[in-house]
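The freezer alarm interrupted the setup, so I double-checked each line after restarting. Inputs confirmed:
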Amino acid sequence: MKKYKMVVDEYFKLGKILYGQCFRWKMREDGKYIGVINNNVIKIWQEGNFVYFYAMDNKNIEEFIHEYFDMGTNYKKIVQGIKKNSNNELLNEIIKYSKGTRILNQSMFEILISYIFSASNNIPRIENSIERLSQLYGNKLEFENNIYYSFPTKQQLKSVSSDEYKQKIRIGYRAPYVENTVKDILSGNYDLEDISKMDTNLARNKLLNLQGVGPKVADCILLFSMKKKDVFPIDTWIEKVMKKYFNNENLTKKQIQELIDKEFGEYKGIINHYMFYWGRENKI
DNA sequence: GGGCAGGTCTAAG
DNA sequence: CTTAGACCTGCC
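Predicted 3D structure, all chains:
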């Protein structure tokens, strides 16, 4: 099996990256991560400024990893630029603490469905549901004598009913949302590839038409799978962080969005994820 | 054991 | 346009 190597800077910390934005990476006892990504299984780990990885399928793997980990974006430049324009003590603390996390470029359909699962749910249950969905409808993959299952495609979910989602995947009231959204995607009226090429606002409004997709989920889809860095998803953690940041407990999500738009620019999605990591890790 | 979690939908003012 | 309630389920 071929072992690949990649050189990274201090703005790449695997443990911080594979956290809070993806559901199918598992850390093993030895600190190495194994993940099912599209139709591939990848083992990856970091030693200082070197990242090593193996893959079940090596075709275009280096280009894929480069894209997946957003290596084309200069985080050092962006984050230092934001820091330079701020004299906010909390922001500087957050940047220092979260330095090394990055935005992954994940599969659009997988992120769409996974984040519909995530609404008012807890992480272990979300991951279990995604695992069941993959085992039932995805492709069987073999890697290092273990069996894995890919996240199903829209075609593979074509004839799955709401009842089936509810009974077999155990996603409760989200079941009809998933059924309807898959139908909409299959209809061709919501081509995710096309949507990803639209301006952020237009793409966002389009996504909001899908059932189970509200403002937070739409922003996560845009940020984690459509390369839109100019969005700021507000979940429960970010809400707490921002109330602290603006020193105002009574802010609504809408007010937070407005303040953010003024304060941060086109890369607010990156700062968002820095804040998320800091907030969740410190359980503020 | 019971509250609650990566929000969204719907109905009503 | 803003806001309150309901909502599956199983994990901590």
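Quick read of the result. Strands of chain A lie at 4-7, 25-27, 33-37, 40-47, 50-55, 140-143, 146-149.
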